[in-house]
Amino acid sequence: MLLTAVTFLPALGGLVLLLAPRRVAAAFKVGGLVVTLATLLLSVPLYVGFDGDVADFQFEEARAWMPDFGISYHLGIDGISLLLVLLTTFLMPVALASAWHAIEDRWKEFVVTMLILETGMLGVFVSLDLFLFYVFWEAMLIPMYFIIGVWGGADRIYAAVKFVLYTMVGSVLMLVAILALYYQHGAATGTYTFDLPALTRWVIPPGLAQNVMFLAFALAFAIKVPLFPFHTWLPDAHVEAPTAGSVILAGVLLKMGTYGFLRFCLPLFPDASLWFGPLVFALAVIGIVYGAWVSTVQPDMKKLVAYSSVSHLGFVMLGIFTLTPQGLVGGVIQMVNHGLSTGALFLLVGMIYERRHTRLIADFGGLWSVVPAFSALFMVVVLSSLGLPGLNGFVGEFLVLVGAFQTSPWLAAVATSGIVFAAVYLLWMYQRVIFGEVTHQANRSLPDLSPREWALLVPVVVLIVWIGVYPTAFTGKTEATLEALIAQVRAKASVAQ
User: Fold this and answer.
1) What percent helix, strand, coil does the chain show, rounded to 5?
2) Greatest C-alpha distance within the chain
3) To 5 degrees, how large is the angle CA 95–CA 119–CA 484?
4) Angle 398-399-404 (CA atoms, 0-180°, nearest 5)?
5) Which of 15, 89, 369, 445 is the most buried (most CB within 10 A)?
6) How far is CA 357 from CA 248, 352, 361, 442, 456, in A?
7) Could you give the CA distance from residue 408 to residue 344 in angstroms, rounded to a whole number?
8) Exposure of 177 by Cβ count < 10 A (0-12 exposed, 13-18 middle, 19+ buried)?
9) d(CA 160, CA 167)
10) In this predicted model, what pLDDT tens digit does every residue of 81-112 receive, in sequence order?
11) 371: helix, coil or strand?
């Protein structure tokens, strides 16, 4: 019952707060923070009790839901989903606390929406039934639409509608593929089921049907990643979303796309994955370089960080489709690294925006002498994002590139240039914002980090250093699962041939 409790506690807390009378906004702030912290504490036993040497699903829960249609309430986690569940429960209280002063009205609705969103995201990562997965996948879309559309910036409606339309196009095609998979499995085995472990044990005949189903799933996940060229919704959504929305969008929602490739595309469609692998590989490398180049010319700090996500998620996709142990482990740990580093960058940009109500790089300069604590933590996060050895970003990118060189040395060499470009746009942005003379009078009186902001940033920085110095605490939980996944894909592909 632990997974059920972790998944639905936020929604239950949101329901209680929804029924509470609207009197004092602070009560909803504290209430939402308490619920998310309780969810975080409840998820810690998942990490402690998880056996990293076992490749199978753990903490499984299975109940018949609609047995006549082969639909069950089936939850479980493995080495892939464990870290993403923990990342979600860790970032949600950070995101809520970051909105303490940034959200000025409708606090009750904001907290309830964020809590429902957390349940939707956790449900996606723990569902082992395709029908249940799709319910959570769609359910989490609605809260994010409201977070952008109600509490966002000037063009929030445009960004929210664009986000929903892009995601819905892929989701509808994925639903068709889920139904096709359901009927094909039933026709071949006599058992109609949406159960993911049962479907992955079945070898789908290679050919047009498998390729089309792979493409339908892959499109839904590629839009969510976002993989080049399906990325155009992301900068608009990030720039218009409130800081809390940007943290969750970058930290968790984008990982649903990369998680989908690992959980569904590779094991269900092994032949198609191998066939389309070089294409995805190439698109990932294009995304790495393109995202870095476009980030370099951004005048807005938030848009720069948004485009950097296209580049960083390209590394994750590169690692996944190497189908090597190093590449896959690097891809999974890079998902966590991106959530921490980019989430922290959005937090820091949000903090400076609250003080100056501008995100333009040209409006700053010389902040080191004014806000030294902010500048120091900003430097640590920037260095982690560009992959400095000793911090978390280096571990993931190094493992991904090791796997990529085994698959395609030339494309891996091009991808490596993305790290160089990351240093260019991140350090150049940092130099213009933090160093030099204070050229704007309004910057001379900025307050440094408050105790609340210290409390937000220190846990993130601790994790950034922990993963960089001792990554085995995290990679050790994923290796057995990923090695089993590689063996499964290659075995099913050879059987089908």
Assistant:
1) 75, 5, 20
2) 74
3) 100
4) 95
5) 89
6) 21, 8, 12, 11, 20
7) 33
8) buried
9) 11
10) 999 999 999 999 998 888 887 777 788 888 89
11) coil
Question: Measured between alpha carbons, how far is 43 from 51 in angstroms, rounded to an integer?
Answer: 15
DSSP 440: S
Amino acid (one-letter) located at 69: F
Alpha-helical regions (H) of 241-360: 243-248, 254-260, 266-268, 270-296, 301-320, 325-356
Q: How many residues would you count in the chain?
A: 497
pTM of the model: 0.90
- Structure tokens belonging to residue 2: 């632990």
- Residues 6+ away with beta carbon under 8 Å from 434: 364, 366, 367, 368, 375, 378, 379
CB 325 within 8 A of CB 454: no
Q: Which residues are CB-neighbours of 41 under 8 A, at least 6 positions away? A: none
The pLDDT of residue 381 is above 80: yes
- Compute the mean pLDDT over every residue in the chain, rounded to the nearest whole number: 86
Please give the Cα distance from 160 to 148 (Å, whole number): 6
Report the distance separating Cα 257 and Cα 209, nearest Å. Answer: 22
Using DSSP's 3-state secondary structure scheme, residue 22 falls into coil
Q: What is the pLDDT of residues 418-441, one digit of tens each?
A: 888 888 889 988 988 888 787 877
